[in-house]
Write a structure and sequence with these properties.
118 residues; mainly beta; five-stranded mixed β-sheet; two-stranded antiparallel ribbon; 11 strands; globular
Length: 118
């Protein structure tokens, strides 16, 4: 969204893989034009009779505004967090290391099954 003109511009998705279309993922700015995205709900299991599926994947989105490119990179994590949508991802400052990025994942729900309250 170009705020001065209030017009949407399409970006080309680039990456070895890109996230599935989804509802309500957590998205938080890392710095500049780079964001981290977790979760959301998609229809990837629709062929198995599942309506919405809570995603548990973690992505980096790097926007190249000049070239109108959205560059996606999927991250591997050392721990598993249950998939969910409609959660929050809040930056938390590490007083010992200002360069380190730490985020608090709070709440959300696995579609039509579980509400997470941790």
């Amino acid at each position: 969204l170009d705020i001065p003109s209030w017009t949407w511009e399409a970006f080309e998705n680039i990456g070895e893989s890109i996230p599935t279309p989804r509802a309500s993922p957590c998205l938080q700015v890392l710095e500049g034009n780079t964001c981290v995205m977790f979760g959301g709900a998609d229809r990837s299991l629709a062929d198995q009779g599942v309506g919405l599926h809570g995603c548990d994947d973690l992505w980096i989105l790097d926007l190249n505004v000049e070239k109108k490119q959205a560059i996606w990179t999927q991250l591997e994590t050392s721990t598993h967090v249950p998939g969910r949508n409609a959660a929050t991802l809040t930056p938390v400052k590490d007083k010992n290391d200002e360069q380190e990025k730490t985020f608090l994942l709070q709440g959300g729900w696995y579609p039509f099954q579980t509400t997470h309250a941790e």
